[in-house]
Amino acid sequence: RGNHRLALWIVEDSGPESRLTFDQLGRRSSQAANFLRHLGIRRGDRILMLLPNTDVLWEMTLAAMKLG
User: What pTM did the predictor assign?
Assistant: First the structure.
């Protein structure tokens, strides 16, 4: 049982769209959190992300929240 409801829908000015469900966003942000953890980033560390408004921005933002 998963949550297949739409969580994120980004529409670019040039036309491309990106849609992620809650399940997809949760899974991808967990993978990103594991990647950051592997780099040595821990709870309380400060990070700076310079990303455009894409699905990666929101995955990384959630990943940082998951790390604390």
Answer: 0.85
